[in-house]
Amino acid sequence: PSPVYVLGVRVDRLTQSQVLIALKEVLSSSHASCQQIVTVNPEFVMAAQQNTVFRQCINQAALVLADGIGIVLAARFLRQPIAERVTGVDTLVELARLAAEHGYRLYLLGAAPGVAESAGARLQELVPGVQIAGTYAGSPAPEEENEILERIRSAQADIVCVAYGAPAQDLWIFRNLQRIPASLAMGVGGSFDFLAG
Ligand code: UDP
């Protein structure tokens, strides 16, 4: 089905298993630049009303997932239903499974110092064999971008998960899409904190 637009913000109408297929496609096809995944909740839709760049960022993404029952309800109200919500943390675990299966390497960027390391360890418990290419708290400040991109490059990552909170994480990915040395990047909000426990 075609995407639903909630107050001008695109949301793809995919079930969890269709998301998995779409993730596989994004990871296996060769694109000139990194592909972005955004998980949209009602706060994203509200923020995108004032912030045009954030709306462009969401609407251009390779995949826009409905993270939150509020989005599922809005889609139903618009008579373009979405079967189920797809959370950021579930998607991160699915990405880890795909990564383990195909030998892709995950880079965990953001969150407080130490949190991404713990989240990586937890992912390796949940998904044996998944390779964590690297972790780095850093910050979304533009002055740090070159250094962070160099860290990702030297870690030889394929998938970059960014936990700088919304919209900072998604805008960070969006403005660096042409430079991120990986196939796929996703904003993951509080997922590292959740996994780290
Ligand atoms: N975060 C960060 N740097 C920042 C802002 C946030 O590393 O400048 C991290 C924060 O530690 C947390 C994650 O971003 O791990 C998500 O933050 P929050 O829960 O506020 O965002 P949301 O889940 O609401 O998008």
Automatic annotation (TrEMBL):
GO MF assignments: hexosyltransferase activity
Keywords noted in UniProt: Glycosyltransferase, Transferase
Keyword Metal-binding: no
Keyword Glycosyltransferase: yes
Protein name listed in UniProt: WecB/TagA/CpsF family glycosyl transferase
First-to-last residue of the parent protein present: 13 to 209 of 259
Organism whose genome encodes this protein: Dictyobacter vulcani
